[in-house]
Amino acid sequence: MKFLEKALGFDPTLTTLKTEMIAGATTFLTMSYILAVNPAILATTGMDKGALFTATALASAIATLLLAFMARLPFAQAPSMGLNAFFAYTLCQAMHYTWQQSLAIMLIEGIIFLLITFFNVREMILDSIPQNLRYAISAGIGMFIAFIGLKNAEIIVPKQGTFVGLGEFTPMSILGIIAIMLSGILMARRIKGALFYGIIAATIIGIPMGVTQIPEHWLPVSAPQSLSPIFCKFDFQGLYNYNTLLVVISLLIVNVFDTVGTLVGLAQKTGIMKSDGTIPQVKEAMMSDAIGTTCGAMLGSSTITTYIESASGIAEGGRTGVTSFVVGLFFIFSLLLSPIFLLIPAAATSGALVLVGVLMLDSVKKIDLGNVAEAFPAFITMITMVLCYSIADGICLGILSYVILKLCIGKWRELNWTLLVLSVLFILNFVFA
Predict the structure, then answer these.
(1) Which stretch of DSSP H or E encloses residue 242?
(2) Of 77, 116, 400, 415, which sits 20 to 30 A from 197 (CA to CA)?
(3) Would strands 156-159 and 77-79 be described as parallel, antiparallel, or unpaired?
(4) Element (H, E) at 98
(5) CB 324 within 8 A of CB 331
(6) pLDDT per residue over 369-384, tens digit each?
(7) CA 309 to CA 27: how far, in whole Å?
(8) 180: helix, strand or coil
(9) What is the pTM of this model?
(10) pLDDT given for residue 407 in this prediction
(11) Distance of alpha carbon 51 from alpha carbon 233, whole angstroms
(12) How far are the Cα atoms of 168, 226, 302 from residue 104, in angstroms, in the given order?
């Protein structure tokens, strides 16, 4: 127990070991879809899918365990869902980089990430965000998480006339509705581990419905696939040009604000954020992210980020590094137990995601809604985070609207130089992206 207290920040007066372990299992199950989705997306570039599964699990384990011991916070890290799509569909398909060149770009970004974290640039950005925008980021992330849950279960689907709309009642969407209602009922009855049990129950219910797919000759254990087809396969030729520079800058902006936004939202949820708005061990959390991104590129995976799904474990009571340590162990175990984890359908995790959204919405009541100069940027942050399907875009547009509004009403003294510099960078990024 002393080891846990010293190395992982475990505090028996705040939580129990059982609670932390359930929280870690819940977070892992909620984000375990990345083990199936990330290889599927990156394999479209010609990379080996089996090797990608191993890379995804190892990169997630390394980054999350680093966070557990360095920052001692109940957060988890894995390849970013937005940036893996950027890797496959933008870099490789639209811009015609090879996947080897794209991995080299990810490595460059990871090294720059390490440098700006070491020199406190990311922490400076975090400290510059106004208090009301921090509350908006937390609530916006909650709505974004819920939207992901509804989309993954095909309850909300693309519609040509209205962009999005209610999907048809298919086995997938029905299982998603069951998962959401079951999680809500368990949570309302104050059952410990409600989200965890909801995922397990929905996965089992999905078997007779045909949503939880069990392959023929299925075995729960399999040997990990070799990393050799993608390990350190960097190609730096043809990268020394203006387009590559813009790509790296875009990746940095998206990753910085994805991570910053997620850290703010999760810190609000855990209650660890201090009264002055600072987050304990935030530099260590950002450093583990940066190291994870660099290691991920070497292993053959896309950029690592802190996962908003960590909120599901926090909702179960996770408060220390023990939670993230458990998540990291699960990622290691998943190398051998991949057939089990790949059984969990996206619809089964939708209940946890929607309920986390409900829990994170309480930050809205802390926003100064009586002051339009504060409420308007907060609203822009929340709504664009969902509609743009990007935490980073929501934060960028929220900060831009905040700065423009303050300048136009003569309250420029409430701004700081970091916000002004960031606003210029955001505009340049939107113009040249």
Answers:
(1) helix 242-270
(2) 77
(3) unpaired
(4) none
(5) no
(6) 999 999 999 999 999 9
(7) 6
(8) helix
(9) 0.76
(10) 93
(11) 12
(12) 42, 20, 10
